[in-house]
Amino acid sequence: MQDMRLRKSVSYVSSVLISFGPINLCQSIASSDKALGFLLDIFHSEEDVDPRVILNVCSVLHAVLQTNPLEVLRAIASRGSDIAAMVYYLDIDAVAELLINILESTCSSTVHPKAFQSALPILSNERIFHLLATRLEECAEDAENDFYCMNTLDNLEFTFRSLVSNLNSKYVKYQTNVAMKMLDIYREVEPVYRMLNAGLYAAEGDSDAHALRVSVKILSGLLDSFKETRTDETMNRLEPIEQVLLSKAFELISIVDEVLVAGSIQPSPLLGLNRLEIVDMFATAFEVCTMKTCEALITIGVLGSLLELLSQFKRNSLLHVRVARGIDGLLMRSDTMTRKLIFFRFSLVPRVMDLWDSNTNSRHGQDSEEYRSVLLLISYSIWKCLDSTRTDSPSDDLESLISTPALAEFERFTEEIARDR
């Protein structure tokens, strides 16, 4: 009983003094295992703790976490069960905020691998994920003018990107079952859809489209996580993410097209960055999505917009790399039906050759070595795809993919390139 009375003495006054007082108060708590243990043990109480006490403890821990994150994270990692105990009090808003702050600090800090593993209960909690989606929706309202919203968006972006990369790191490889169970939460349709929709909504009024860029990065990061986990089980989990992508693909590619013609999105220093993120997401989709989804994206106009970007931004090497990666990933994974769509209906070869001709015949001559190089890379990807069709599936006549004159012209084209090199 005396111990409980002591714990309940974490008063509002003391929490305010620590949270807003001299920084050395926080440093003293962080450097003391006994002090940190005293605070964290409150979440392990066998009796229900007064919500006001929990609120005050969260205020203190948040302040200490802001000034000395490594010490707090190491203490939580060494104790092992504090996060799960905090989740029990998730109905208290301050606990949810503290858990998200712990998650952000874990992803942004170089700590012992156990620190990330101890954060798994946060990552696998459905309510936390929906709370992050709600945060993005709220920030979409005032993302342009509200500094707090901008800071929250930056934290959301970094947290999700770090989350996905950490899932495929060597530290959690041996915890595959735990990690994959957690990934089920992050591949739910509703919250991912809400995040992307919030970004698109914000783009209508936010000249920097900051919320859009964050939501696109989240979706791109989730798609990217499938590169290392391509099994029958994980591919089944890809379907919900593909649903979200297809539901908003037309709006996203329309934004790229509007960028091309200086449409509704207002010019800003971040305009090119937004374009890069959308292109990067579609390039990743071509690398990991099913052929059915890739065919739908081609039909919507994604591949055409990527080539149009090449023709209009001939000196943007960052854009070139992403477009070439997406086309190569698509061609190398394509089946017969997809190749017919790419070469016969979409006429990829004539389009690429037109890009080469327009570059050669322009008044500036060759615009840049980078632009020439990306056309070479795309041409080589086409050649590899056609060559594998000839080698692996002799029954599939190449003329069903590309007409004989066009094929002959492309072969002469590649021979000339080889001689020039």
Automatic annotation (TrEMBL):
Example GO molecular function: protein phosphatase regulator activity
Organism: Rhodosorus marinus
Swiss-Prot/TrEMBL keywords: Cell cycle
UniProt similarity note: Belongs to the SAPS family.
The keyword Cell cycle is annotated on this UniProt entry: yes
Organismal lineage: Eukaryota, Rhodophyta, Stylonematophyceae, Stylonematales, Stylonemataceae
Matches recorded under PANTHER family: FIERY MOUNTAIN, ISOFORM D, SIT4 YEAST -ASSOCIATING PROTEIN-RELATED
Keyword set includes Cell cycle: yes
Protein name as it appears in the record: Uncharacterized protein
InterPro entries: ARM-type_fold (IPR016024), SAPS (IPR007587)
